[in-house]
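Slide 14.
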Amino acid sequence: MITLQTEESIWGKTLAEKSVPNLLPYSLIVIDKPCGPSSHEVSAWVKKLTGVAKAGHSGTLDPEVSGVLPVLLGDATKAAGYLLKDRKTYVALMKLREAQTDAQLESVFARFRGPIYQTPPKKSAVKRVLRTRHVYRLELLENDGPFVLFESEVEAGTYIRKICYDMGEVLGCGGLMAELRRNVAAGFTESQSHPLQDLSDALWLMKEKSQDEPIKRMLVPVENAIALKKVVVSDGAIQPITTGANLAIPGILALEEGIRVEEPVQIVSGKGELICLAKALMPSEKIQENKKGMAFDIDRVIRTHKSGLPSAEKPF
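Slide 15: predicted structure.
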C-alpha cells in the first residue's frame, strides 16, 4: 500500500463497529441452493426473509441444479458485475447408455480439457451461437457402470450439460447430465454456503432472542467479496465522488501498488467502507509522483455520503 498522506477518518464505521442493520444492505449471503426453485425465486426468498429493499444473485443455477449461489443484498447488488466470475467448479453425475472403462473415460476427458467449442443447449437463456470456453480441470471421481461422477473447473458460461452430451457423442454411446452441483462460485466454496433454513433460523434468533452472531457469521460485507485493489480516500473527497465528480489525486490517502490504466478498483473510506467502484485514469506510480490531476473515473457509487454516517443507522 502506497501512502500519499495521513488523516484520521471520522466518516462512517469500521466493519467491527457495524450492527446487523448497517451490514445487511451492503452484504451478500452465500446460499446453498436446493434443487427445485429457480435462482430468482431463491433471491426473492432471501429478500423477504431479510427485509432488504432488493436482492440479486450472481451466477444463475437452473432449477434442477444445487449448490453455491451468492445473493447480494440492498446496495451491494450494484457491485454484482465486479464479483469474481472467471471460474466455477461443479460436481456432475453423467449417465451413459453403455458402461465405459476408466481408460476410455480418461481418454475422452483429456480431449475436453483446455479450450473447447460450445453451442449453448436449447433450454438456455442465451443466444445459441458457437463460442469458445476453457475447461481448466476435468477429473474422474467415480465410474459405476453407466454412471460417471466427475468434477470440473471451468470458465464462466460453460455448460456442463453440453459437455456431458458431447463426451457421450465422442464415446459413441451417447450421454446426458443426470445431476449437477456447483461447489465454487465467485470465489466462495460450498463450505461457506448456508441453507435457506439456517438463514431463517439465524434471523429468528436475532429478532426473537436478540442473538446477532449467527446472522453476522453469514453476512459477507461487499468489501470482502470483491477482489479489486483498494484506493483509500479522505473524508472530504467522499461527498464529491458520490455526487458525480471523479477522484483527483489530492483526495487520495493511500492506494495499492501496481494499478494500471483502465484497471477497475474499489474506492474505500479511511474506515474501510466501500464507497465507489472506479477505473484508473493513470497508473499508481504516476499518482504517487504527482500532486494534482484526475486519477480515477467513478463507475458505480455503492454508498452515498449520507448512508455512511452513523446517524443513518435504523432499527431492524
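Speaker note: The first strand starts at residue 2 and ends at 3.
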